[in-house]
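From the pipeline queue, job 12 of 40. The input is one protein chain; the requested action is below.

Action: predict structure.
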Amino acid sequence: MSKKIKLLVTGLNGVVGRALRPALEERYEISALSRSGVDGLPAERVFKADIADLDALRPAFEGVDVVLHLAADGGQSSSVGMDGGWGTMLQNNIIGAYNVCQVALEAGVSRVILSSSGATANGYELHEPYKTLVSTEDLPLPDSWTMVNEQSEPKPITLYGVTKLFGEDLGRYYALTTPMSVINLRISSCGPVDEAGPGRAQANWSSYRDLQQLTVKIIEAPADLKFDIFWATSDNKKLFRDNQHAKDVLGYAPQDGVR
């Protein structure tokens, strides 16, 4: 690339942010927005603000090309996981997502990448064959199963999952009504250690390098990719969160998987 993309990342201190950071720093000029700040970046590229305070966000977006919005409540870094109440979900996940998109639009940002989640579809796991695929027990695998892709019916079973679906439709709205491209990345099982744990992760794990690869491909995708949703998953034997769309559209080529 002749000119480094200026990338603003919200939530860089979180689990996913830490997983992505080495690859992003290698390719882009990164700035960070968070409540508490980020170590290891020049002071002029570290911004502190509450994501729910729209006006406080504006300085961080000046001169930015692409925004990667990871900040939210309910993910791996949350003390209560996906079980946070309505108040925190409203402020951090709904108002926060709107604020990021709106300030990005006003600042002339070309693309916003919103971190969505497997929680948009966790309801599938309440029933077979998916219940077996995510079991911590060593059960015989089904002969076959229908993949859950980006067009499948959403099935959230937490408010967190509902807020991530809001983010996807919010992105659709901005992509349809403004010049900005908005891409949603449904981040699957990606934890503080780069390996697949028992249960759900055996089916839905995303390795760090696969998540890095997919995120880079989304950042650098052609401008005419105005809106889309992609599952971030490695090629696991029990996989049912379908990554084929990312392979077809972006040339995503997972290097890892639980076999």
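Job complete. The two ends are 36 Å apart (CA to CA).
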